[in-house]
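seq:
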Amino acid sequence: MRTVKRSDSSYLFEPIVTVSGGILGFELVKKSAHQAANKQHPHDAGSQTFHLSAEERIKNFFDAVTLACINADIFTHNNFLLSIRIDYEIASHIVNNAAMRNVLQQHNYIRLTLDAFFPEFSAEQDRPVLHALSEHGPLWLDHFGEGNTSLTLVMNEKFEHIKISQHFFWQHQGTLSFRQIIEHLQPYSQGVIIGGIESARHLEYLKGSQIQGMQGILWSAYSQEEFIQSFF
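struct:
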């Protein structure tokens, strides 16, 4: 496992907040990706890593897992979950790396969150990497409503939580069809998480909907130092 300083300042913990105002967990993101996502469009923080090589993305994943392990006491004592987003190359590396799988199993608050453009999500595709990965712990689906995601995928595969894309939410917020989509997703997971919450109006739109959590710039992200000071 790579060495990451306890005071590492290159990562942020984005809170995932429950409807009642509690904290379900956090998403761990690179600070540069978080800042770029809040200033620009693309598919938020994840899109900012697409220009990196597979080797660089795997290296970043190792750093993220190391930081997650350093903060193990906070997650276990507070019963928080930690979402770390992965793509196909990272997933393939995990499947073929017994040491990494052992680390993930020992730190069972970590949730691997699969990117919407995961190639095995496409219709008619075999899913050997997805199925192998699911044998080692719960998986989350990221950015539902974009990429290769679909209701058919959700019905046929097992995801602990489904995170709806912020852009999908912004496009359909306040509509009956959006609430119906949440209702359709609900039976196939332990909860739906809505991304892109930026205002009190967004909270109003979600009142009465059957969601598990929310995420967005309405809640400030924590640096490593702030995270320790707030929850240790």
